[in-house]
Amino acid sequence: MIASTVRKPLFGVTLLTFSLFLLLFFFTPFPFFSDPSVTFNSSRRVRPEIWSIRRLAEWRPCNWWLQPRTNALPAQANGYIRVDCYGGLNQMRRDLCDGVGIARLLNATLVLPKFEVAAYWNESSGFEDVFDVDFFIQQMKGFVNVVKELPIEIASKDPVRVDCSKRKGQFDYVESVLPSLLKHGYISITPAMSQRRDRYPLYAKAALCQACYSALRLTNTLEKKALELLQAIPKPFLSLHLRFEPDMVAYSQCEYSGISLASAKAIEAARVDRKPWTGETARIWRNRGKCPLTPNETAFILKALAIPTNTTIYLAAGDGLMELEGLTSVYTNVVTKSSLLSGEDFTTMHGNTKAALDYYVSINSDSYMATYFGNMDKMVAAMRAFTGLYKTIFLNRKAFALFTSQGFKGKELTEALWKVHRDDFIMGRGSALPDCFCEFNL
C-alpha cells in the first residue's frame, strides 16, 4: 500500500520532466543543429578541419563507360588520324583525349600523337618519353585502334592538316573533317578547346574516357622517379597546386598591391600587350574570380578551412612562383620536387616530365587543393574521383574577392570562406568533370 502511493507522484514527475525535455529538444535552436559547420568544445566554437565534413554527393565513373563494349569497332577504318598536341603536359593530355574521341567518332585508326617541341616550356620530350606506349595501345583495344607505324604507302607522306578550331560537336566533325579523312587517308588535327562532348555518341565518349583515365600510364623510368618522390614526402600530406607566376598574373590582367618590386617587374615584363584592367572594370573582373590567389591569400583560406599550420604541403608547381613567403611564413612544412629529388636525371628533366611528377604525386596525395581550375586541376580531380580519393577542393577565388570587396575581415571573412567551401565539399562541386563521371547521392 505504501509502495503504490509513492510510485504515482514519482511517475507524474518523471513524465513532466521528460515532456519538458522533448519540448526543449525540438524547439530550442541548438547551434550544433542550426549550423553543421561547427562543433562545440567547452562552450567554445571550433571549426573542424574541412575534410571531416560528411559529403552528400560525389562523382564516380559512369556505368556506360565501364560496362563491356556493345559497339564493336567496324572492320574497315576510314583512314588514319594523328593528334597534334600543344601547350603544357595537361593541355596536351586533354587534346589527346579529345582526339581519341574524334578518331572513334570518324572510325579512324589513331597514330601516336605528336607533342609540341616548345622552347617556352623548356620542352623537347615526346609522347613516348612520358607515357607507356604499349600499355596505351593495349588499353585502347575495343575502343579505338592505335598503331605505332603507318603502312609503307602512307608513312612517306606528311598528314594533311585539317583545321578543327571551330569543330565542337559530332556533326561538325562528320560533315567537315570526315570528307578530308576519306580523301587523303591520313590527316592531323588539334581538337578545338571548347569541345561539346555531350554531343558525342556514347561509344565515342567511352573511348575518350578510357584514354584519359585508364590508358595513360607513365613510362617505367618516369613512374619509378615519381614513386621515389612520393615516398620521400612525409605522410600525411596535402598537394597544393599554386598558380602565381608572372605569366599567369599577366594573362589575368589583374593588378596587386603590396607585392615586392621584383614581382611587380616580373609581371610587367610578362604583360606584353595585355594591360591590366583599371577602375570599375578591374573591380568587376576581380569579383568574377578572374584573379589568381596570392600565396598570402592562399594561406589565409587554408587557415579558414582549419588546415593545421604544421601540415606537410607538397607544392605542385613549376618554376617562377612569386611571393612564396606569404605561404611558407604560415605553413612551414612546404616541400617541392626540387627539394626532395637530386641527381642528374632530375636536373636534366624537361617541362613535360617534371609536370608528370607533380601529376603523379597529386593524384596519390592524401588531399588536394588548387588555386585555379586549369587543365591539370581538372585532370587530377577526375583521376582522384576515379580512384575513390575525394579530399579535393578548388579554392573559391570568386567568393574571396566578393567577401573582401564587401569589407569582410578577420573572423567574419574566415567564417564566410569556411561556409562557402564547406558547401562546395559537401556537394562534391568541382571534384570531377561530367564528361566521364556521373553524380551519386550518398
Automatic annotation (TrEMBL):
GO terms for molecular function: glycosyltransferase activity. It holds the Pfam family O-FucT. Its main location: membrane. CDD domains: O-FucT_plant. It is a single-pass type II membrane protein. Keywords: Carbohydrate metabolism, Fucose metabolism, Glycoprotein, Glycosyltransferase, Membrane, Signal-anchor, Transferase, Transmembrane, Transmembrane helix. It is found in: Membrane. Pathway: Glycan metabolism. The keyword Transferase applies. The keyword Transmembrane applies. GO terms for cellular component: membrane. It comes from the Eukaryota. One of its GO terms (biological process) is fucose metabolic process. Belongs to the glycosyltransferase GT106 family. This is O-fucosyltransferase family protein. It comes from Solanum stoloniferum. The lineage of its organism: Eukaryota, Viridiplantae, Streptophyta, Embryophyta, Tracheophyta.
